[in-house]
Amino acid sequence: MQATGTGQLRAVPKKVRTVTVGGPGASNEVLVVGEGEPVILAAHAWGASARVMLPTVLNLPGTKAVVNFRGYGGSSPRPDGWTYPELAAELAAVADAVGATSAIGQSMGAGALMALVDREPSRFEALALLLPPALDEPIPPDVGELFRRIHLARHGGDPDELRTEIAACMSPELLSVRGADAYLRAYALMLAACTPPTQRPGNAPVTDRGRLARVQSRVLVVGQDGDFIHRTLVVGEVAAALPHARTHVFPATAPMWSDRRSLRAMLRDLLTGGPEVVAQAGPEPGREPRRDVGPGVRLDVGASRGTV
User: Fold this and answer.
1) Do 162 and 150 touch, CB atoms closer than 8 A?
2) What is the DSSP letter of 54?
């Protein structure tokens, strides 16, 4: 796909293209790959980027439009910090420009998508929320302290200290998984190479979770055991607020970063409306979210870590 003068897309060979949406001082760089339907909007996490998010969606069907939020990549800066409604406005502009019918967001990107469908509940046919950080309340003080320590370590310039602070956000079970060291090194390098805008105090994706009952999208909400920033309790609360949501929580023994095949299978079923993505009501608030693994397979529910 390629951009026209209005930001719309046309078919081009299957390689990554760069599109700019918006005007001077308020533009978003968008990486576009693939062609045809569905057109998928993808939104990255705090401290990440469109290029970091790209591998998650690369092999999905259709056209993938992966956004760099302002303050990242080639997008305009955001020197005064960010709120979820502001990020939602960026996503709305990009979704309009590329004609997105579905969306995938991780962490901060998932919160921004919740803010968008809160104001436009009919915006997307399918929605994937990976590691949602919050719902209608700001992140709790203990999570805010983890972010503060990561900020200080990043500014200090010591890669070992930065890796130590990132590791403090993960349970011993998650840290013991094969590939955890490589993940920590890569995450620390990513954070050291950027200057991500900071979240403004009191920020939450939505003000009233009850309003999400109007959302008619097929929704997949994904969590990760052993992640102290993205709580599994929030996964259940988000799914309960959305009338057509299903959930999956990756166990600490097989984390999301090492089981991309299962994640992509779930995303593909969600986007194509496959038989395994029948709309299901989310769990009741405070209850453990359902743990589905790929088509037709369901894990037994284990002990939940409420501080994930």
Assistant:
1) yes
2) H
